User: Fold this.
Amino acid sequence: MSRIAIFILVFLKSMLSYGQVENRWLPDSVYKDKKVKKVYVYENSPKDLLEIARLDRNGRVTRIEKYSASYNKRTRTSKVINIVTICIYDSLGKINQKIDTIFYRHNKSVNTEKTYFVYENGLLISSKYFKGDFKNPSSETFFSYRPFTSTTVNKKDTLITYRKTKEYDRDFYVKRFYGYVLEAKLKRYQSTVNGVIETMQYSDENDRQRFDDDKVLKNTFNERGQLVKSEIKSMFMNDRINEYILNYSYYENGLLKSIRGYVPLYYKYEYFD
Assistant:
């Protein structure tokens, strides 16, 4: 069960951060076996630090620090932490809370977002994501098994404005991501101010347009069970098509080294004694 729980954490995090679908992490059993203490992730080049994940001795993520983007040498050396994620587990090792602290540098403010995980008969059945001090969840994710799927739903009052489902290979790796989002239509109106006609724009929350997405991943595994390639065909915004291939490489000890083919990611590790 811990294997599934740790994946859910990463999936939720990635869902909010990345437009493309990537299988960016390994099962916690691999990290435990290799005695991984920290995972350093770099984006675009092996010098551009993206995030640091801290793990306990059971391979579970306990803290993630996500850093600001870099565009050149100057910004690469002046990176700051934008988001800190803390993961809290129960006595059985199941994740029951995830706390995101988001730092807004321009106005020196801080916001907290929380996710609570719900179990039934030892199985994770849902998670609820709350923004700030809101009493109602901003989104809720539902999990089902045999096969393993997860569906995230956002609502505005009773209207579902976002519903997307992930299907998995081997109960871990994403193989399909599909669903829809309802977005408020952007409309215009004209007004006259001091004899001058001005055109204004506004989002009409009562008139929404549906956009369908469907990403299919053809995953290829080697004889060691490692994911080595994902051929991705993505349909988004109803009719726009994007196709690309992700190639995964590994260190000799079996840990993920890089993902190339879209926005490249590179990995380095620190180990427990």
Remarks:
- Confidence is low (pLDDT under 50) at residues 1-20.
